[in-house]
From TrEMBL:
Domain HTH luxR-type: 149-214
Domain Response regulatory residue range list: 3-121
PROSITE patterns in alphabetical order: HTH_LUXR_1 (PS00622), HTH_LUXR_2 (PS50043), RESPONSE_REGULATORY (PS50110)
Protein keywords: DNA-binding, Phosphoprotein, Transcription, Transcription regulation
Modified residues (4-aspartylphosphate): D54
Protein name: LuxR family two component transcriptional regulator
Pfam families to which the protein is assigned, alphabetical: GerE (PF00196), Response_reg (PF00072)
Gene Ontology BP term (one): phosphorelay signal transduction system
Cross-referenced SUPFAM superfamilies: C-terminal effector domain of the bipartite response regulators, CheY-like
GO molecular function: DNA binding
Amino acid sequence: MIRVVVCEDQALVRAGYVTIFNAQPDMSVVGEAGDGETAVRLVGSLRPDVVVMDIRMPVLDGIEATRRLAGPDVETPAKVLVVTTFNLDEYVYDALRAGASGFLLKDAPPPELINGVRTVAAGESLLAPAVTRKLIGRYADRVRPSEAENRPLRGLTAREREVLTLIADGLSNAEIAEALVISHETVKTYVSRILTKLDLRDRVQAVVLAYRTGLVHPR
């Protein structure tokens, strides 16, 4: 079973998430939180597989809660799936930098939300393509790439840079395989090599780096 903690301050929305997840044969909601402080405490004691996190919450917002649960200084980081809206895009970028494993829009249909939880639970990252280009591109582009930031990409082969570019465009492994006419397993190997060479935790960090180094630009 995928053990889920839902962190959402709106009671009706939280109840909807709980109903959706508990209706799945492979999911169980083991905790609910209406504020970030409670979320941090619950996750620390329950150790769920996935934390579904809202951003704007009382007491402690979702960004700081994410940082405390999945930040670079956390010994055993939690897998946090941020659910947000477009008008909170700057906060989402901060949440990704804080260690979130991915994000979805709040108006995502239930099947997409369910798939998102399963994807994050499996150790992969979830990046909605439209959100990737709109949010990460916009805010990463504010920072002019420096020589130091570009240096890590020099260790990538031409094909690995190509794969990283497609990752930054929000393509899944299957879509990358189709675009490059290679097998799904080959794509997984490339992704693994990219993360290892760049010393990155997951695809989210790879996307942020791709924008910050100027490998890709917002459209």
